[in-house]
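User
Please review the sequence:
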Amino acid sequence: MKEVILLLDDDLTTLTVLERALGGAGFNCISSSDPKQALTIVAAKSEIAVVVTDLYMPHMSGLQFAQALSETPLGRPTPRVLLLTAQPSMESAIGALRGGACDFLVKPVSTAELVAAVTKALDRARQDRLIHRGRSAGCCPQRPACGRHRGYRTKKSTGARYDRKAAPAAQPL
């Protein structure tokens, strides 16, 4: 599945700039200028992994959107949220990070900085999805301590599993 970045801003010019910058970097993007519509889009499209949203919008701020998104039952990990603002303050940055945003960017943001932040958020979203898949398959984070994985270990270099019971005994030195 190809992950999608949802862009949310009440300013259509900003949406166009963001879509061109991220689309030019190879990201698949969907845009919305309405936070309520964006919540509906996220609920309907499981491939949305990251949301880039403006902090200050009419009717619902980026922080309120992030809160509403985290409260929405999706059956999958909540997409990572990046907040953008043209009016930065220490309070808004702290509030954004405490509210669950994974980054806080100041407009105008350079394409390199935006791409780096989205890439980092996308990596975290992929990790969230792997953990979620493992838990939904009946696994637990304490591998190999749980009964399902008893006797199995993962080779760090290849990720391959091997049976500890069938593995050759260590040779004495």
About this structure: The radius of gyration is 20 Å.
